[in-house]
């Protein structure tokens, strides 16, 4: 049991390879769902273990309000290096709670501001067109759900490509992609090693929307052209600063994927790379859940035993 | 009431789409059209071979919602997007987008930033995608 308490804190180390493999080899819908579940489970388990460490660590501090029995040698011996990690866990845990709360609050404020900005504007279907030469297009969850597009984004596109753009944004709203984005983002706040999963999910939801739009239109190349043209139109007048990547960025990867064959929707065979990703992810989360449950139960039993009645 | 765009079975151009989708498409079309347009023009422009009466219904609905203004043009109506309200909202949106903030979780942009390398890869990809690229 002792080391099991640290295992969920270390298992997010698997996040990077799993995110890479799933993002590259699974159908974007499967990848999004798998990665979201993995990051939520891993972050909850690691936070739980951290909380347990905090309890034991706090019990070691002089003048703490917890029962004296909790700082017994028996409890300390059950967790290796508890005097060091138990104390370190306290500020870490507080920092995590703050980061999650601040991020969640900021998202809510930003969402409220965006809703207020478009409040009252009429929409045809879900579409709100705004006269602005700067190209932008957003799916804004409501109620009411809206697709907000500037005239600068519509002008360079032809009729079919405009349909592609609208279908893509509609797919974001229908698929409730904001939930996957928000969940992985909060998970990354709870454990920084889960950040690659959030980055990958930000990409796979775009791919997912691309594939949904391709299905709705019955044509992949139109979506590819729409994405490519929109990105080229947006270039030079970036609404936001963004870092330059050495590797090809998300847009060329999306276009290349759309020009290729549709991704397989079936579950991959265990031998394939996608299969490996799914397998590692499933094993990692299962071990994390079992280890943190095991640690939690053992620790609670120990604390009950050490609590003077 | 809603005709789903039949996600399971992609077919050729002119897949059926729901009334909401049609409204969006017609609205987007009139925003990029230069000047007032009639139902006949919209019908000719839109892919999918819509019935004339369908187009007229959509245009009247958008007019009722205050999205389109219309004026007599011969025996038919010619429609233009109503810009006053949209202009005000556009300025509010602009102000929101301009202030530095991490809004990625709230507003997922259609396309992310391109690096110089991305741009050349993208142009090569679109060029290789065939003559379709020059359509727009």
Structure in a nutshell:
The complex is a heterodimer of chains A (309) and B (136). Chain A has 309 residues and is mainly α. Chain A has twelve helices and three strands.
Could you outline the blueprint of secondary structure elements for this entry?
The complex is a heterodimer of chains A (309) and B (136).
Chain A: H1 7-10, H2 15-25, H3 28-60, H4 73-78, H5 82-118, E1 127-130, E2 137-140, E3 146-150, H6 151-154, H7 159-174, H8 177-190, H9 195-217, H10 220-234, H11 250-259, H12 273-306
Parallel strand pairs in A: 1-3
Antiparallel strand pairs in A: 2-3
Chain B: H1 19-32, E1 37-38, H2 39-45, H3 52-64, E2 68-73, E3 76-81, H4 84-98, E4 108-109, H5 116-128
Antiparallel strand pairs in B: 1-3, 2-3
Helix pairs in contact in B: 1-3, 2-3
Can you put this structure into words, describing what you see?
- Chain A has helices at 7-10, 15-25, 28-60, 73-78, 82-118, 151-154, 159-174, 177-190, 195-217, 220-234, 250-259, 273-306; strands at residues 127-130, 137-140, 146-150.
- Chain A is mainly alpha-helical and 309 residues long.
- Chain A has one domain (2-306).
- In chain A, strands 1-3-2 form a three-stranded mixed β-sheet, sandwiched between helices.
- In chain A, strand 2 (137-140) and strand 3 form a beta hairpin.
- Chain A is elongated and about 75 Å long.
- In chain B, strands 1-3-2 form a three-stranded antiparallel β-sheet.
- Chain B has helices at residues 19-32, 39-45, 52-64, 84-98, 116-128, and strands at 37-38, 68-73, 76-81, 108-109.
- Mean pLDDT of chain B is 76; it is low at 1-14 and 132-136.
- Chain B is extended.
- Chain B contains five helices and four strands, in the order H-E-H-H-E-E-H-E-H.
- Chain B has 136 residues and is an alpha+beta fold.
- Chain B has a single domain (1-102), classed as Arc Repressor Mutant, subunit A, CATH 1.10.10.10.
- In chain B, a hairpin with a 2-residue loop joins strand 2 and strand 3.
- In chain B, 46% of the residues lie in helices and 12% in strands.
- Strand 2 (137-140) of chain A pairs antiparallel with strand 4 of chain B, so a sheet runs across the interface.
- Chain A: InterPro entries: Beta-lactam_resp_regulator, Peptidase_M48.
- Chain A: Keywords: Hydrolase, Membrane, Metal-binding, Metalloprotease, Protease, Transmembrane, Transmembrane helix, Zinc.
- Chain A: GO terms for molecular function: metal ion binding; metalloendopeptidase activity.
- Chain A: It comes from Embleya hyalina.
């Amino acid at each position: 049991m002792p080391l099991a308490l640290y295992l969920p804190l270390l298992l997010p180390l698997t996040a990077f390879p799993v995110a890479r493999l799933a993002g590259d080899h699974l159908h974007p819908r499967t990848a999004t769902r798998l990665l979201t579940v993995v990051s939520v489970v891993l972050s909850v388990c690691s936070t739980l273990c951290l909380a347990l460490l905090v309890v034991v660590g706090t019990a070691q501090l002089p003048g703490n309000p917890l029962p004296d029995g909790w700082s017994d040698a028996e409890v300390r011996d059950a967790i290796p290096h508890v005097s060091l990690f138990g104390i370190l866990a306290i500020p870490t845990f507080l920092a995590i709670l703050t980061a999650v709360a601040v991020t969640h609050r900021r998202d809510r404020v930003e969402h409220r501001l965006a809703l207020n900005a478009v409040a009252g504007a009429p929409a045809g279907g879900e579409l709100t067109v705004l006269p602005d030469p700067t190209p932008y297009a957003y799916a804004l969850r409501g109620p009411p759900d809206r697709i907000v597009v500037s005239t600068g984004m519509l002008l360079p596109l032809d009729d079919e490509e405009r349909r592609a753009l609208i279908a893509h944004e509609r797919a974001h709203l229908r698929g409730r992609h904001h939930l996957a984005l928000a969940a992985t983002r909060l998970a990354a706040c709870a454990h920084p090693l889960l950040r690659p999963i959030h980055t990958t999910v930000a990409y796979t939801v775009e791919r997912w929307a691309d594939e949904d739009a391709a299905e709705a239109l019955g044509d992949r190349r139109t979506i590819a052209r729409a994405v490519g043209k929109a990105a080229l139109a947006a270039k030079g007048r970036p609404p936001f600063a963004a870092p330059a990547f050495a590797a090809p960025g998300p847009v060329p990867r999306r276009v290349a994927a759309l020009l290729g064959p549709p991704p397989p929707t079936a579950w991959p065979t265990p031998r394939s790379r996608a299969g490996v990703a799914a397998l590692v992810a499933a094993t990692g989360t299962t071990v994390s859940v079992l280890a943190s449950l095991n640690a939690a139960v053992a620790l609670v039993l120990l604390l009950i035993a050490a609590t003077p009645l | 009431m809603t005709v789903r765009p039949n996600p399971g079975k992609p077919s050729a151009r002119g897949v059926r789409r729901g009334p909401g989708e049609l409204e969006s498409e017609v609205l987007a079309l009139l925003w990029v059209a230069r000047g007032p347009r009639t139902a006949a023009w919209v019908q000719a422009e839109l892919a999918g071979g819509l019935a004339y009466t369908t187009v007229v219904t959509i245009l009247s609905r958008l007019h009722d919602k205050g999205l389109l203004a219309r004026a007599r043009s011969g025996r038919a109506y010619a429609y233009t997007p109503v810009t006053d309200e949209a202009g005000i909202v556009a300025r509010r949106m602009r102000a929101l987008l301009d202030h530095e903030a991490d809004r990625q979780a709230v507003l997922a942009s259609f396309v992310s930033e391109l690096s110089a390398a991305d741009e050349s890869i993208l142009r090569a990809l679109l060029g290789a995608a065939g003559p379709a690229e020059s359509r727009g």
